[in-house]
Design a protein that fits this description.
alpha+beta; 3 helices; globular
Length: 130
Amino acid sequence: MNRTKALVMGSAALLVALAGIAYLVLAGGDELRYKTQSALRKSLAVTAAAELQARGLKLSAPLKCADLPGWTKQKLRASCTGTTTDKRDVRVLGSGERKTHKTYYTILVGGHPVVENVLCLGADCRRDKG
């Protein structure tokens, strides 16, 4: 193998390694974004409201959030409720699994899904994009 070929292969290997590291950093690695039930519950009202606003839906008052029955330290579960300015019911569901390191969110407005099983809401999504 000559020097040029070795230099090209080494550069390509370095680029692949850097891309892999960037993916892990941007994807969040092995950790849940919200490590406690309290953190998930508190963030859910803010991120869901931002998501609804980005979709042109306005809330008549801040969302009220609570823990869902059956949550554990391994399986985080919270929900929020509220009303839009045009009097439609809003229900937000958030969950996180320590075992899989996955978080999912669903927002229903007037009983219909606005988002279903998305990985992020509001500012959390913008943070994921860099």
